[in-house]
Amino acid sequence: MTSQRPDVSFLSSELQAGREKGDPTERELRVTLEDAELWRKFQHITNEMIVTKNGRRMFPVLKVSVSGLDPSSMYSFLLDFVPADGCRWKFVNGEWVAAGRAEGRGEGRSHGGIYIHPDSPNFGAHWMKAAVTFNKVKLTNKVNGGGQIMLNSLHKYEPQLHIVCVGSRHRLVSNVSFKETQFIAVTAYQNEEITALKIKYNPFAKAFLDAKERYDVTTDLTHTQYPCLWTVGCSELSPSHSPCTALHGPISSESLMQPPNHGRVGGAGWPPGPTHSF
Prior knowledge:
The protein is α+β, with helices and mostly antiparallel strands. 26% of the residues lie in helices and 29% in strands. The chain folds into two domains: 2-201, Immunoglobulin-like (Sandwich), CATH 2.60.40; 203-262, no CATH class.
């Protein structure tokens, strides 16, 4: 997987050149968004995507099905994130409202980088045999984030897919975007409905929720059966005086703050708060 800072000026000019040429091998090109209904569920309440210093993967995952490429030609698939408008947004009284002009050049219409699909370049036959999945894209709010896509928090973005024919002269075959995939970049989810949808449909979030439920049950049992675990002065007792030592060994103050198995999901803190991200 590679990614690079954008030099996207060639994209628009190559797209126009490709249209003028009218390459007959790609006139029937069709790109379809997978899981479109799921994307629309998020779009209906304004989707949010977490950006972090270390980078966070997207959910839903962007996947497309492609047909109409020349099976024997070589193509690269690139993903770009462009501002969907010129606004900065804020969440007020349960809804997103515009809160001034976007940061960056030209009404915020600057690029945060280009993600090159790790299968690139490859034959058209390869791209058409199964859905093309961008499940390794990471979004960051850190400049020069080590090959990740840098986005400004509280700005709205729309992913754009660029299909480039690779040869003696690179030629942009098409660029495609879907309004269903627009989202606002955030450092923590603002809308509780978005959090609920992420938990409901993201299998990793489900695993986290299951772990939380197990933690809650264990906490109740431990508090009832071994109250010394939740006594401030417990760690000051010697092992011979602690009724929990036989089961758990010596207890430290640090261990009291850890969930069972010292669980962590996605680098989040424990226990999860209402704005936990997945």
